[in-house]
Design brief:
The protein is α+β, with helices and mostly antiparallel strands. The protein is built from 3 helices and 9 strands, in the order βααββββββαββ. Strand 5 and strand 6 form a beta hairpin.
């Protein structure tokens, strides 16, 4: 198993960075290796990624998702797979640290695995840079999904408490 970890700071609030990240269908707009993403269910996505003429399609299950904090996933299928997570942390007013960690199974010799890990690290770093440019250029998210997922199961969205319809309490 090989790992890649990269972090970048973006000049938007945590909720903006997180909300945009949950819009998986928009990834091809700023990530060069992501060709298409289809949201099958709230916790299941189908990805097409590629370099040049090479393409790879896989399904990914979101196993943990906490608004403004974390999105964790694992790829499904028999081919060499991966699991990963992206976390969001406020670093100051209107600033967010976005940290990505991906663990992947890579076949082959140790030398080949080292080269694959190097390519993966450079790719993740570049794609995070593209995300930074995209979200800072927009200045706002293009949508949001604020639900939670635990152990691959979608949790109901917490209802907002009822608000009093009286504009203010009477004064005696």
């Amino acid at each position: 198993m090989s790992s890649v970890e990269e972090t970048i700071e973006v000049a938007v609030p945590v909720s903006t960075a997180y909300n945009q990240w949950t819009q998986f269908k928009s990834f091809p707009r700023f990530m060069t290796v992501v060709k298409r993403v289809e949201q099958i269910r709230p916790n299941l996505t189908r990805w097409v990624v590629g370099f040049g003429p090479l393409r790879h399609e896989f399904d990914a299950e979101i196993v943990d998702q906490r608004p403004d904090s974390l999105v964790a996933w694992r790829s499904l299928g028999a081919r060499a797979g991966h699991r990963g997570e992206v976390s969001f942390r406020a670093t100051g007013p209107g600033r967010t640290e976005v940290a990505v960690r991906i663990d992947f199974r890579s076949p082959g010799t140790p030398g080949l695995r080292t080269r694959v890990a190097g390519v993966a690290r450079r790719t993740v770093r570049a794609e995070l840079g593209h995300f930074k440019e995209f979200i800072e250029g927009l200045g706002r998210e293009g949508g949001a999904w604020r639900g939670a997922i635990r152990d691959g199961h979608v949790r109901p969205v917490e209802p907002e408490p009822a608000r009093c319809r009286v504009p203010h309490w009477p004064v005696g």
